[in-house]
Amino acid sequence: MKKAYRVLLPLLFWTGVWQLAAAAVGKELLLPAPLAVGRRLLELCGTGAFWLTAGASLGRILLGLLAGVVLGTLLAGLTSALPWADCLLSPAVKVIRATPVASFILLVYLWVERGRVPGLISALMVLPVVWGNVTRGIVATGDQFISGGEQAAKIRGDFGADACEMEGGSIGQVCALNKIPFAVIRAISDHGDDEASVDFPAFASQAAQKSIELLKTALPLL
Predict the structure, then answer these.
(1) Which of 183, 162, 159, 161 is nearest to 171 (CA)?
(2) What whole-number distance in Å separates Cα of residue 101 and Cα of residue 216?
(3) What element of type H or E holds 75?
(4) I need a labelling partner for 171 at 20 to 30 A (CA). Which of 26, 35, 182, 202 fits?
């Protein structure tokens, strides 16, 4: 009952707002009322052309989303592994992320064939989000304490990782299997080089204190 309430209440509220706004405008061309939209939608659902058009648009959007995910992931790996790629490509991705979608739609309509607009807009919306998440998320995890320059270089070369940790991956796997939301909070304790075994004990108490402060700040927000 509670779930139905949380779904129905916002739906009824915003439908009412829509109806009031349409009544205030008084011009169906500018803002049609919910009943007029629903009636017209039912009429269109009875035509084959509607479903063909809707299916084609949906297919283009899904392809655009897939392209955005793939390109965003590839760019994230590239900019994380190669400093020159990060220098050249990251500013462009950040500009795309900061630019309003409405602006892109207007520009794309001028430059691209109309049928390709939905897919391209979808890709441009998804690409920077995926890029940002994957870039910040490339952290290698394993069952070894990395304390050698050669080990660290191999991990970075194989995975494009900026850091390496233990335990977090196994905890995440258990939580994922049991469908439990989780977050792993880590602090960098050393450089993963030949001095790592010396750096870790000195850093442990400082890392613990920072983790406590972070938890105190984060928990009230959850």
Answers:
(1) 183
(2) 36
(3) helix 48-81
(4) 202
